[in-house]
Amino acid sequence: MSEERKIKKRAISIRGMTARICEREDNIYNQAVITDVLKMYFDECQKALENGERVGLSTIGTLIPKVHVYRRYGIPDMNDPEGNLPFVQVHFTRSKLCKEKINSRFLKNLKNGFPGLGERCQCNKAQRGLLISQGFSLREEEDECTEE
To answer: pTM here?
Structure first.
């Protein structure tokens, strides 16, 4: 199994976000207050999504709940004993500023020889090969891939 698959990609939790906020120099609140405020904020976001409302995350993007109903095309229901039930997906759209910042950081990392945004978000071997074949400079990565 490759090293890329061994790294667990965990989302940041309320506890992790609280720790990051507590470490900031401009923070004046204690950890318990920050945790309570974040829990209330995410609880309200969840309620809004349950009511079918969009949730805008400032400078990041928007969460949009969308209802999906299966099209049957005359084929009998197979997966579920009750048939394929309609379901709701939550789509995320990035803001233009967030998209530009993330993409520019990724391109900057590529120029510096690092194929990804961070340690937990990197290109796999197939993606690296594609980047090399398209002419993106990956310095160390390029040498490793050609040796294999």
So the answer is: 0.67
